[in-house]
Amino acid sequence: MKKVLLQSAVAAAISMSLMTTATAQESSALDIGRLALAGYGDVTYIDQPNMKDEAGNDIQNNVVARFVPIFLFQLSEKIHIEAELEFATTSEGETETVLEYANMHYFFNDNTIITAGKFLLPFGQFGANIHPSWINKAASNPGIYGGHGGNGSLAGVTYIMNDTGVNVSNTWDLGDAGRIFTDFYAVSGPRQEAGDHGGGVEIESKNGDNNDSMAFGGRIAYAFLPEWEIGMSYYSGAYSDDGDLNYSAYNIDFNWVGSYSSVRGEIFGSTAETEGEDEGEEEGHGEEWVKDFDKSGWYIQGTWQARQLGKAWLNPVEFVVRYSDTESDFDGSVEHDFEEDGGKTGSRIYYGVNYWLEPSAVLKLGAESTSIENEEASHTSVPDDRIFLQLAFGF
């Protein structure tokens, strides 16, 4: 039923777009046939004296660097092509190359953009718009996000999601009343991690699909720009190889920007169906069951610009504080499928000061401390206090 509703919403979004005049913009940021280069990069020093790997060895302080070029090509007035690559050094000194996204945008009319290919899912605000290091006010990601830069001993409850499929994006201008943004997409969807008992949920994009079921999702947001915006996102799809087990997630994001300060945050929740069997029946086989495994989290972040004090030498200075919290209903009964989630939930606080060298170049000094709620269940939990020094730039 949920999939039918989401499919109907996609069709409705396209139908409503037909009511607007399908005219392309005469002025364009790119000339037809022209290739442009944008992107960002960063160099980060991480001091982590108490961190250990799974074998109990000390994790050394390290310096990591990234260069993330974005290629933009205008094929015609209505068709733009975009791709982002990430070149990064790992903690082992190796170079890692990742295709973050590659897609085509078709400007259906002044309100509607149809995107096809691999793209960042419009799920919340951080993953789609804020994760680039020169836009992210902190030197690390919010605690609810795993992967993409690591999260220390705290297991994230979601990822910065990208996938392959089609997205229909609309902007509805309400005049003085603000704007409404809508996105509806159909993508390959989550897949089942490898494991003796089936494994957990893997959301990172890969070629092909492990079942014949697609995932559907979308985001609806209301904005009174430039001050504030609030959005709601939903995502649902079958993840098991046989297509019988489903994963669903929601996100509520909010953002307020004032003259000298800002507040933003997200509330996340997810449910993954798991299967197993109870012990005690004959021949070692028990009664089969399906159980929901829930994970949730939230973060809130505030910034303040010291230029409010009216001192010229303080104009480039900005202060940042962020608090994250994650939790799950892990009780051991789904340990084989979701062992990586056991006990690695808790809270994290980040403090930082930024010095803006240019409008798109910033030097960040930050510190964060993590508290794990259930260290006995995590097996590998250790004190997790880190200090960051990062130079980030956009171009």
Overview of the molecule:
This protein has 395 residues and is mostly beta strands. The protein has one domain (2-22, 109-394): Beta Barrel (Porin), CATH 2.40.160.10. It has three helices and 18 strands. A 16-stranded antiparallel barrel has the order 1-2-3-4-5-6-7-10-11-12-13-14-15-16-17-18. β6 and β7 form a beta hairpin.
Descriptive terms for the model:
single chain, 395 residues, mainly beta, Porin, 16-stranded antiparallel β-barrel, two-stranded antiparallel ribbon, 3 helices, 18 strands, 51% strand
Give me the secondary-structure category. Answer: mainly beta
CATH class: Mainly Beta
Strand order of the largest sheet: 1-2-3-4-5-6-7-10-11-12-13-14-15-16-17-18
**Quaternary organization:** single chain
From the alpha-carbon coordinates, what is the Rg to the nearest angstrom? 22 Å
Tell me the layout of helices and strands:
Blueprint: H1 2-17, E1 35-47, E2 62-74, E3 79-89, E4 95-107, E5 112-120, H2 126-130, E6 162-173, E7 179-187, E8 191-192, E9 201-202, E10 215-224, E11 228-238, E12 246-257, E13 261-277, E14 288-305, E15 317-328, E16 346-358, E17 361-372, H3 375-378, E18 384-394
Antiparallel strand pairs: 1-2, 1-18, 2-3, 3-4, 4-5, 5-6, 6-7, 7-10, 8-9, 10-11, 11-12, 12-13, 13-14, 14-15, 15-16, 16-17, 17-18
